């Protein structure tokens, strides 16, 4: 029988949960977004806080907190999102002095591609800050439809992106929309990494996951492939949050100054753990070494 699960997590928040779980350090991460003044919003705040993530939400008094229904049948899944308040975030919130302080203190900032549908001006404000201050600004392609139907917004943000995450389907769609004339994921990653960049303090790194196939990393025109440790299919319970967990694991090592191979290794570890649990959840402790 299929099972329906109500979920109120958001993509970057899932990644931050992975970072906190791996670092085991309180207040190492902070998250902002928009919720409603309702029971779901309060639950989301409480759950994130209990997971060790500092939240700094904009609260929309007139719109309900977004929800998502997830239908899982065996290893297959389908998601239906009701974005509601998540669609209402405004730049005016982030530029308030108390909220901008979180941006000032952060050394690495990660934005999900889904936010391109909500407030591109917020992304540009934060991206420009990172470029000037030589901080690391990260984004995720997040979904094929974003590459196709939000191309203009994505290309506005991309010059500020130092590390871009995505999967093979998103990369292939990006290639088709931008007429790269190749379906080779390695070639696509190199082409994306070479697109114009606003700052020169570092080159762009493009990280493409491929499920059970090797992770592809493009940087400075070079390609590296990192094999993953496969799981027995019987161990896979729910693939929801796998990409977000990978990004969180990757960034948990990046903030410690670890090299890219170690970042990828931790990303694949975090993803392998989350797909063995229902929802984007982790066991109480981690054994990553």
Explained architecture:
With 289 residues, the protein is α/β, with parallel strands linked by helices. It has a single domain, classed as 3-Layer(aba) Sandwich (UDP-N-acetylmuramoyl-L-alanine:D-glutamate ligase). The protein is 39% helix and 21% strand. It has helices spanning 11-23, 39-50, 91-94, 97-105, 120-133, 144-149, 151-157, 168-177, 185-193, 242-254, 260-274; strands at 3-7, 30-31, 34-36, 54-55, 58-60, 67-73, 76-82, 108-112, 136-140, 163-167, 205-210, 213-219, 222-226. A hairpin with a 2-residue loop joins β6 (67-73) and β7 (76-82). α1 packs across α10 (242-254), α5 (120-133) packs parallel to α7 and α10 packs antiparallel against α11 (260-274). The model is unreliable at 1-9 (pLDDT under 50).
List the helices and strands and how they pair.
Elements: E1 3-7, H1 11-23, E2 30-31, E3 34-36, H2 39-50, E4 54-55, E5 58-60, E6 67-73, E7 76-82, H3 91-94, H4 97-105, E8 108-112, H5 120-133, E9 136-140, H6 144-149, H7 151-157, E10 163-167, H8 168-177, H9 185-193, E11 205-210, E12 213-219, E13 222-226, H10 242-254, H11 260-274
Parallel strand pairs: 2-4, 3-5, 8-9, 9-10, 10-11
Antiparallel strand pairs: 1-6, 6-7, 11-12, 12-13
Helix pairs in contact: 1-10, 5-7, 10-11
Outline of this structure?
The protein has 289 residues and is of the alpha/beta class.
What key phrases describe this protein's structure?
single chain; 289 residues; alpha/beta; UDP-N-acetylmuramoyl-L-alanine:D-glutamate ligase; 6-stranded mixed β-sheet; 3-stranded antiparallel β-sheet; 11 helices; 13 strands; 39% helix; globular
């Amino acid at each position: 029988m299929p099972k329906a699960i109500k979920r109120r997590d958001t993509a970057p928040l899932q990644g931050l949960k992975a970072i906190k779980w791996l670092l085991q350090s309180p207040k190492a991460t902070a998250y902002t977004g928009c919720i409603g003044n309702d029971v779901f919003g309060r639950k989301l705040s409480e759950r994130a806080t209990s997971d060790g993530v500092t939240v700094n939400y904009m609260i929309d008094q007139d719109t309900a907190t977004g929800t998502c229904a997830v239908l899982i049948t065996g290893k297959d899944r389908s998601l239906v999102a009701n974005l509601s308040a998540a669609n209402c975030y405004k730049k005016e919130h982030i530029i308030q002095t108390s909220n901008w302080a979180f941006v000032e203190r952060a050394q690495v900032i990660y934005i999900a591609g889904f936010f391109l549908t909500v407030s591109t001006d917020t992304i540009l404000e934060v991206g420009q800050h990172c470029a000037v201050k030589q901080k690391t600004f990260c984004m995720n392609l997040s979904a094929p439809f974003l590459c196709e139907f939000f191309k203009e917004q994505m290309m506005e943000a991309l010059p500020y992106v130092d590390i871009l995450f995505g999967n093979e389907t998103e990369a292939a769609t990006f290639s088709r929309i931008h007429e790269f004339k190749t379906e080779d994921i390695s070639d696509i990653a190199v082409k994306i990494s070479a697109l114009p960049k606003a700052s020169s303090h570092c080159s762009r790194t493009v990280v493409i996951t491929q499920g059970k196939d090797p992770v592809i990393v493009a940087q400075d025109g070079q390609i590296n492939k990192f094999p993953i440790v496969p799981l027995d299919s019987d161990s896979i319970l729910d693939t929801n949050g796998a990409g977000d967990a990978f990004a969180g694991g990757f960034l948990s090592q990046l903030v410690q100054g670890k090299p890219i191979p170690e970042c990828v290794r931790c990303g694949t570890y975090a993803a392998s753990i989350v797909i063995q649990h229902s929802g984007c959840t982790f066991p109480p402790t981690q054994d990553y070494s």
